[in-house]
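Researcher: I'd like a structural prediction for the single chain below. Treat it as a standalone chain; there are no partners to consider.
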Amino acid sequence: MQHHLFYRLLIISCTFFLISCQQTIECYLIPSTEKASDFYKVQPRNSGTLFLAKNEAEHIQIVFKGCPGETYKIHRNENADNSIRYSCRQIKSVYGFDDALVPIDGEQVTLNDSIAKLWITFRTAESTRPGKYEEQISIDSNGKRQKIKINLQVYDTTLPSTPSLPAAFGIIEKNLIDSASKEQTLQSKLEWAELCLDYRMNPYFSTWLANSMKHEASSSPWKWNDKRTVPFLSDKRFNRFAVPYHSLSHNELDSLLQQLKQTDLLDKSYFYLWDEPAYMKEYHLIGQYSQEIHKLMPEAKVLTTFYCGPKDGKYKDRLFSVFDLWRGDTQIFSMSAWALQANEANADTCRSLLRGNEEWWTYVCMGPGEEQPNLLLTMDGYQHRAVLWRSWKERTTGFLYWAVNAYAESDTLAFRKDLPEGDGVLIYPGQYFNSTSPVVSIRMERWRDSMEDYEYLAKLEKKIGRAKSETLFQSIYQSPEKYSKNNAEIEKFRKSILEILSK
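Model: Treating it as a single chain, here is the predicted structure.
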């Protein structure tokens, strides 16, 4: 009797052990536009679908429940297509916001609490063959396992490596300075520039001079006459780049302009001389600098940012007066989206005031707020995603973002107190997350998604015309304060465009 009881208990124990060994891990798949922390609002699932063009990146978030202190292995199936790149990063909080995407060391994650949040990216190449791909990701720990299936549908259309829209992003140089050595500083500058280029951004190194808004910008990590500068700026991922002015003598400026012309890079270059001038004396200074440039090279371009009209003089507080006041001195009018006041008629006015080779760019800095698109941490993923939806609808010819690393100080992650949370910070120094490389933000990924949406629209417009493209676009975007906040609607829109483009 005792033997029978012992065997029954042994069988029961083994059964429970086998069941525990085969336990699955509860997982949730969250769209990249949504907050991973809202996973509890959806049902657990272990499969999903992503639509991609060639040369595009798409993402999905995986949230899974586990035990604090346990280590989990995150593994992609070995039969994956080599032309589709995969990355898995852990979502980390920055001052209470899920924003940093930290590379996972050795495919392993050790939980600090009972929830893990992952950001999964698949990235196609130009050589990726159109068709359906079945990706499988396994999460394993102590006999527990969950297999997640991601179906990829790759369409026969390719996003260009050279962005259709110039998008200039500043890197504050003083926040990268490495006192260890000049060579390490240059290496850091190159690493950050390459990272921005990989995200369809045109980087420039930014310095404000003499405690003023006088501004020096240069896209090359090296000096303008270094032998490495021209090959770097010739990279096809650049469609615009900044060149220095204030640090050059007159003869050096002449040599720079001649070099740009001889290497067929002049059309891609611009001078960013002053940031947001407000008074007529600043307008006059910009005019003096610009005239020196244009006497040497009339076709050179000067970019000037603004959010208001002059604060003094005859045209005080007249926003649109800058188009006349700067004519001949500025060729790229870069205007704050905040100044448009969510009124598309103001965008129409800006375009109507352009002459000849002039361009009208927009930028986001501090504002706009409320429901309008911007990249602030307090905003939702749909506001991040819609930044360049607005650019396409309002027909801007470029986009500018003032800084990706505007920390309060170079050796901290603190945000500046005079700015909204996250403004001017899209990339974090890796050392704060035990990473040897800079750590990008979720907002930076969403911005690239926005740029890829812009590429969809640019290709669509070429194929079926502006009017029909706008009609399709209405399904997700109507105005700066009215656009879709439903991921299913966005995916339906993208799929419809991919089907048109792949025919």
